[in-house]
Amino acid sequence: MNYILFDGAARNQLLPFTFTRPVADIRIGILTIREKWERFLNTTTSTITEDYLSHKWPMVEMEENVMINAAFLPTAELLEQVTNLQPGEAIFHEEDIVAFFAYEDQDVNFDACTSIELEGKPFRIEYTWDIFKLNGEAIAADFEQLTRDRKSAPISSTNQVIAPENVFLEEGAKMECAIINASEGPVYIGADAEVMEGSIVRGPFALCDHGTLKLGAKIYGPTTVGPHSKVGGEVNNSVIFGYSNKGHDGFLGNSVLGEWCNLGADTNTSNLKNNYAEVRLW
């Protein structure tokens, strides 16, 4: 079967990140949404997205296709429903389309489809803040997927580790003289990533491939540092997609940082207004 991930109604609510990528290529947890689906489906996917993005992310359509709303992250229950879709069937969650079967060039009439209600609790992102709000759950799910029936690379005795059974290092990862507390959630260190001396990490936490925690970094979970990113200072409940740097002292909290961003020394964000009012998103 050919699987295609489409942006869906959440695309505009996930701006500005979806200006430069399909919904499927948002990182939440350890993996992007596309990487999650491809691991669950054991096959590659393509994308229906904005025309100007389709040059980089083209759709590949075949005679028979299953279209999946990329705002819905894969679960075991959803996977079973998606892989068992038949012609003329569509999966809904309330009024939202989750997935549907489509022949090549077919103009699908959802009113004529056999409607199937999504089973189990949906795992979805609807707004930008969901990326960090749901990141702990996503890290735990990805950790289970990536480490099942595998053994971590050795953890150096120079580290102080609480709940080492919840810590996993990929081959090539380096971690020395760090304090790691994985009692509240897993800690994943990707291939060729480095946790420098003096770093203090409280899970859930993911440092993706080729990422770096600099000397003395203080990390509160749930936090994800994407591939080829460098982080120092203090970070709390944030997601960095990849190829971005917060390399010096300063605070980043309850935030999402896209790709190819750089926060200069002593950059600080605040998740609390001086008058204690609700924070509004512009």
Automatic annotation (TrEMBL):
PANTHER family: NUCLEOTIDYL TRANSFERASE, TRANSFERASE HEXAPEPTIDE REPEAT CONTAINING PROTEIN
Keyword Isomerase: no
Species classification: Bacteria, Pseudomonadati, Bacteroidota, Flavobacteriia, Flavobacteriales
Keywords recorded for this protein, A-Z: Acyltransferase, Transferase
Domain of life, per lineage: Bacteria
Statement: the UniProt record of this protein carries the keyword Acyltransferase: yes
A GO term, aspect molecular function: nucleotidyltransferase activity
Pfam families (UniProt xref): NTP_transf_4
Name the record gives this protein: Glucose-1-phosphate thymidylyltransferase
InterPro entries, alphabetized: Bifunctiontional_GlmU_bac-type, GlmU-like, Trimer_LpxA-like_sf
Organism: Salinimicrobium catena
